[in-house]
Design brief:
mainly beta, Jelly Rolls, three-stranded antiparallel sheet, 1 helix, globular
Length: 150
């Protein structure tokens, strides 16, 4: 997992060949763009623009992906993403290859990662994560999840 803020995004362009295009999209994003899926490089790189309210962490589940990595960018609001190494998690629900997602039981130990507007987290397949958790009281957020093919 990598956590940083958008002004530093160019530091990560060399990490993956699609990162530059993805981060440039985040830099160009304007609030008038509606929620939905936006293909940037077909199925290799796309953006999921989302608006929702965070919830208590106990209401969320850990998840992980195999075919895509996530760049989760907070446009507005504050949320906590729980993080745990995939090898420490126990499967809760069989992996759905079509949706590229597996769900896991709550681990004995995890790390809460606070994201504020302008922050992003890069989550690899070995990063179990629990997004959408409230940082205090539930609150609205606007988020973009870039799905980057591996």
């Amino acid at each position: 997992m990598i956590v940083d803020s958008l002004p530093h995004a160019d530091r990560y362009f060399a990490v993956h060949p699609l990162f530059e295009a993805g981060f440039r999209y985040l830099c160009r994003f304007t609030p008038d763009i509606p929620d939905g899926r936006y293909e940037l490089e077909g199925d290799r790189l796309f953006a999921l623009v989302q608006s929702y309210s965070t919830v208590p962490a106990a209401e969320k589940r850990f998840e992980a992906h195999r075919c895509y990595l996530d760049i989760q960018y907070l446009v507005a609001g504050t949320e906590i993403i729980g993080h745990a190494a995939l090898e420490t998690l126990s499967t809760n629900e069989a992996f759905n290859l079509g949706k590229d997602i597996g769900f896991f039981d709550e681990p004995a130990l995890s790390t809460p990662v606070l994201l504020r507007a302008g922050d992003f987290a890069i989550l690899y397949p070995n990063d179990g994560h629990k997004p959408g958790c409230a940082a205090g009281d539930p609150a609205p957020v606007r988020k973009i999840v870039l799905k980057v093919a591996l």
